[in-house]
Amino acid sequence: MSFLKNLKPNKPTASLEGYFISMLAKSKFGKTTFAIDLAKEFYGTLDSTLLLATEIGYKTMNGVYAIPVTGFEYAEDETDKEQKGFMEVVDELIENKKDIPFRFIIIDTITALERYAIAHTIRKANFQDQPETRYADITDIPWGKGYNMVAEFIYSEIDRLKKAGFGVFIIGHEKSQKVKNKDGFEYDYTTFNVLGKTSNIIEREADMIIYGDLLVEKGKDGKPVESRVLRFRSDGNILCGTRFRNFPATIDNEPKKFLDAFKEAVLSLYDNDEKAVEVAVQEEEQKTEEKADRAIEKANNSPEKLKEKISEIIDGFERSTKKTLVPKFKELLGNPDYKLCDDSELLKQVLDIVKNV
Predict the structure, then answer these.
(1) Which pLDDT belongs to residue 258?
(2) What is the DSSP letter of 142?
(3) Which whole number is the average pLDDT over 114-142?
(4) What is the CA 297 to chain-centroid distance, rounded?
(5) Measured between alpha carbons, how far is 249 from 310 in angstroms, rounded to an integer?
(6) DSSP state letter for 238
(7) What is the pTM of this model?
(8) Are 289 and 94 within 8 A, CB to CB?
(9) 273 SS3 class
(10) How far is the CA of 243 from the CAs of 1, 23, 233, in angstroms?
(11) Domain boundaries, the chain
(12) I want to staple 255 with a disulfide (CB 3.0 to 4.6 A). Which of 41, 89, 232, 329 is the partner?
């Protein structure tokens, strides 16, 4: 029987956790504060929220669960037990999802995370290409493929979180750039302060891009007055948007107003049937658990998890024993540093080697 005969109509996602949300704004707009306050408003507590902090904007926030992320795969300073690598944390979240309270993951900021991803990409490209002259910069990687690699490395981890049932909210700084259309008209465009490929993949994949606009107007006393609003519809000069048809173009910078607008937008997708929305949320929770089971099984055989198992064994070896492994790893991988390999099948062979030493 054709699978087309069993095809069912799509049901819109009803829960906030089911959406990939991103936000960009100027420094000191209050992006981190908004994301944390939104989570607290939605859950009633911060117990379900984890902040992956590539910057230190959370230091003055009370009650926030945060992990300092100082590298893409592993922390820059592995002797500091508080610091973690981005991929390392994603692995742990997926593997332990059933035993931890976290469900809403805030990445603060994508701008800083990309710097770690660039360094990670250069290392990987040197390992894969083994050029005569080692790549020192992202621009050294031929054909511009380094830019695509950076964007894909970042999004693949975000996608793993999404598929495991986590809500993902990323924060980024803004930048303005000159854009020229096909008619030659040039104008300023505000987007994420990241590489173009990274910005493009966020723009393509995010269900909602919020632009935090800091307005300065003349007050009654003639002095400047600041106000903050959230924009969801672009005027052509800023990056923002949402997949929701019925969502306000602009709202005040208040988490409660955002959630009210979100609930109304979801309700409109179900023809204002509140019972149907409740049923949809329950069904999504069940599907999320099923996804989590599959994601956990996959995570246990991920390159990062295999490397962790290899490291645990090697750390117990004498220095002389470790030296005997170098030619074996080089013969198998083309490079003695197994941590640069992302091939699970090859890493399984490395694991077998160290187990049999």
Answers:
(1) 95
(2) G
(3) 89
(4) 21
(5) 51
(6) B
(7) 0.82
(8) no
(9) coil
(10) 34, 15, 10
(11) 17-300, 305-355
(12) 41
